[in-house]
Amino acid sequence: MVSQHDYERLPRSSQSRVSWAMTAVILRRPTGATAAALAQHMTGGELTLRAVLARLEEQEREIAVQAEATREQIAQLTALLDELDRSAEEVRITRKTLLALPDPQLPAPPAPKLPDHPAYQQIMAVFDAADMPLRARQVCEAMDLEIAPNNINDTRLKLKRLAERGILVETEQGLFTQPRP
């Protein structure tokens, strides 16, 4: 930077000289070609108007390049913002459409099919008449079967099959009941 002392040593008579304030601002950061141009035009401590104009011209070009780059960034960001606005609007429309749809009613699952064997109908008749969970032995008694291990085991297997199909529920080990809605 040119100090005021250096400036005062410059001859004041020529019109090609520039005021001290202007010189201080313009010469604040000469770089590259401008610094070389200024060095060429400064002879014997004099700063010519041509050197100052060259520096101003370089600054103007740099500012123009920065302005153009900024305009391109603004254009890209504007395009991105427009795309985001469109996407947000599509999401709002989709959400509004989905909220307007009635709640889908899931079809009731088909009733589990009871096996065709008559013993299963007898077991279900016992459970229809019962008001509490039953064990295989109690079902045999209700069906007037002889209380023998074979009959109890066969009935227990049938109760397990009915539970697997969802017709009965095993609330605890060996204790069966009809499912309650």
Can you tell me about this structure?
There is one protein chain. By secondary structure, this protein is mainly α. The chain contains seven helices and two strands. It is rod-shaped, with a radius of gyration of 49 Å.
The percentage helix is 55-70%
Principal-axis shape: rod-shaped
* Oligomer kind: single chain
Provide the gyration radius in Å: 49 Å
Topology, number of strands = 2
Spans of at least 5 consecutive residues whose pLDDT stays below 50 are 13-27
Q: Strand count, sense and closure of the main sheet?
A: 2 strands, antiparallel
Lateral arrangement of strands in the main beta sheet: 1-2
Q: Beta-sheet strand percentage?
A: under 5%
Distance between the termini: 92 Å
Our count of helices gives 7
The assigned structural class equals mainly alpha
Reading the helices and strands in chain order gives: HHHHHHHEE
Overview features:
two-stranded antiparallel sheet; mainly alpha; 181 residues
